[in-house]
Amino acid sequence: MRKAGIWGVGRALPERVLTNADLERMVDTSDEWITTRTGIKERRIAASNDTAADLASEAAKAALADADVTADEIDMIIVATVTPDMPFPATSCLVQAQLGAQNSAAFDLSAGCSGFIYALAMAASCIESGLSRRVLVIGVDILSRITDWSDRTTCVLFGDGAGACVVGPVSRGGILATYMGADGTGGDKLYVPTAYFRYSPSEGTRPAKKHHIYMAGNEVFKFAVRIMGDASLEVLRRAGLSSEDIALFIPHQANIRIIDAAAKRLGLSSEHVFVNVHKYGNTSAASIGIALSEAVDQGRVNPGDRLVLVGFGAGLTWGAVALEWTGIKERDLA
Ligand code: UT7
Questions:
Q1: Tens digits of per-residue pLDDT, 133-156?
Q2: Which run of H or E residues covers position 89?
Q3: Interior CA angle at 156 toward 159 and 312, to 5°?
Q4: pLDDT tens for each residue of 258-272
Q5: What is the CATH number of the domain that holds 169?
Q6: How many domains does the chain have?
Q7: Ligand 1 pocket, 187 CB below 6 A?
Q8: Ligand 1 center from residue 217 Cα (angstroms)
């Protein structure tokens, strides 16, 4: 079977920074509470004229340049998002147009903050099966548009951004194993009530207070602590690896306490764990892609390194990918 690997990575973060001090002026909170409970110091907020497709396209262009692949070589675009610009067309189609990737199929995927992992797993299977040759995976969310800025229990957590990668065939290494799961009985733990078609026009398309994030924070926290460890161990088992093989662990960046608990369960010391939650907060489907792109830029990922990427999110969903980082030599251009 053909192997799939990551050829290039990219990210896009809005310029505007919202600090904990800014939030102290908006709701009854403190830098001390946010820092100790979440590890977050600041997050990025999209400008009012930024769209999810804009951020996704910026991240995608960076990933294409990093992979040395042109837009017309891409034959599949998968965008993971819970904040698409419109019900339809898919954000991936808007991205396709912005990139000029006219030879590509395009679809969106909704799996909450696990979306990047789900999209990466789909991309790998598209390459492995021979369906596709160059797949663009993008995680993007503009959660600031669905955040209730008067609710201190959620508004301090989230930020906006996009992370992307180009997936192509590799001669060895690459994506070693994937694992995805879901528990829809936990759907009411983290949700936005207004679905595009859920309410009839007579009820109004955006009933007051129905278009914001609702979250049972503590229950999601307990689920996250359990599932991040479980999913990582399961993907390691599928890849025939153990946690000592992990050069870098790149978890969904939701809360430093969740990251620390997962790292502890795997017996990983801090040099093997990538953290940027302090700078961006929880960017949902974008978080793992942004983290991977930063880790590469910081020289923390080298050919031959084994990585585990793991996420959890609304659905409830979870997913993990184990991969061996490949260099240019391992790209299969045939
Ligand atoms: O990608 C998936 C997205 N979701 C998540 O990752 C969320 C997972 N959950 C968490 O990260 C944590 O549960 C939170 C950070 C959301 C909350 O931390 P916690 O340690 O579970 O706190 P808590 O909800 O048990 O609240 C503790 C106290 C409460 O006060 P009382 O009832 O004890 O008097 C809250 O009202 O902290 C209060 N509180 C705050 N205080 C100051 C909640 N939010 C704030 C705030 N500032 N922003």
A1: 999 999 999 999 999 999 999 999
A2: none
A3: 60
A4: 999 999 999 999 999
A5: 3.40.47.10
A6: 1
A7: no
A8: 6
